[in-house]
Write a structure and sequence with these properties.
The protein is globular and about 85 Å long. α6 runs antiparallel to α7 (210-220). With 366 residues, the protein is of the alpha/beta class. 28% of the residues lie in helices and 30% in strands. The protein is built from eleven helices and 17 strands. The strands form four sheets. It has a six-stranded mixed β-sheet.
Amino acid sequence: MQVSLKDIKKLFEEVAPLPLQESYDNSGLLVGDENSMISAALVTLDVTEEVVAEAVAEGCNLIIAHHPAIFGNLKKVTASDSTGRIIMEAIRNGIALYAVHTNFDNIEGGVNSILCQKLGITGRQILKPMKEMLQKLVTFCPVQHADKVREAMFMAGAGHIGKYDNCSFNAAGQGTFRAGESANPFVGKTGELHFEDEIRVETIFPSFLQSAVIKALLSAHPYEEVAYDIYNLQNEYHEAGAGMIGELHEETDAREFLLKAKSVLGIGCIRHTALPAKKIKKVAVCGGAGSFLIRDAMAAGADIFLTGDIKYHDFFIPAGRLILADIGHYESEQFTKELICTLLKKKFPTFAHFIAGTLTNPVNYL
């Protein structure tokens, strides 16, 4: 079964919208034509020259990776460096490159969720929710059209608050307007001041849905000129953000938990701070490099924080208030490949996709 690249792109960007990626990131379609048809996809954590060669050998014309093949300020594409060779070889063989990186890190059900699942961490929540992501829309419509307007905005993604949907506030009032000579008023007469019983409808949405919500509002609203206001909110967006925190089923010896993590993740070694005598229960995680979340994990009351790429001086930060454990960058993100395949299988059951056999972890252990 062939699938259009546009449909694959749509799948991942509905699950993990690109606006959720960090400002430094480069997720999305990096090489290729979204109108092309994909016969098979190779799934990997990193795109290396060996991975491209594997894609060629397996007949895959798409590589889906967690880490973007093009990162930073790329100024040239030549054979003098590996990035250039990767891009040139991909284009030469008609292989598209797509990345799901920090937008996949920052969602419920993403990189940190599957890491929690593998480690037996339940009741998970985003550790550091995003800020300045929510907006409120306020509009006014005739009483008999309020249900239609609300439903249209809800269908466009508005009205979600935590585990609740279709959320709005509604207040009755009276609107006034006078239609000009060239107007075509839904109610009232040209040149006459009109009073109309209306409902003030308020609802919230993440900012990346603004155009879709406004389009839905305008299509459902009966007025020729629709009045609405949009406010930026300071509320945290708890459906997206960095890291995750949850609990083990029962209090566990810290050493036993780390040994379990080492086994489950296949880690060569774990660097960690001193292990206290008391047992642990509340666990925070961040796939990849998560040192920036150490203080957030402490503030959330975590007993232990697992992440990768921890620097020497970062181990001093907890000062005994938190166990800090470096479980490796690759190791903490490796299950992203499984997650990508699960999404593909669910959406396109007969589409051919493979997890790359090439090991891309550049770190080795003695």
